[in-house]
Amino acid sequence: xxxxxxxxxxxxxxxxxxxxxxxxxxxxxxxxxxxxxxxxxxxxxxxxxxxxxxxxxxxxxxxxxxxxxxxxxxxxxxxxxxxxxxxxxxxxxxxxxxxxxxxxxxxxxxxxxxxxxxx
Length: 119
Hints:
This protein is mainly alpha-helical. It has helices spanning 7-35, 41-68, 81-96, 98-118. The chain is built from 4 helices and no strands. The model has no long low-confidence stretch (mean pLDDT 86). It starts with 6 loop residues before the first helix and ends with a helix. Helices cover 79% and strands 0% of the residues.
């Protein structure tokens, strides 16, 4: 239970409370407008509380994930095996044709120079 009282979690709790309060307040405001004759506000009267429910659902999900020890997705995305296979095919083609290898090096140099020029 102490892990939910760290500064990061306290910030998330506060954010969830503020968002829920704001969304419910916006819903009440739209309800007042709808009662005064603005027909479009009836849709927003029901939409804003749904946003508040979404915040609560996500907040509960985050707490459950933390208690279950679910780790977030890795920040480094590994290349699929297909890219490695393509690199191997290109390498083999370059070994077979030295002119093609020289041309590919030339294109790579041009690409790196143009990338430096854009910065």
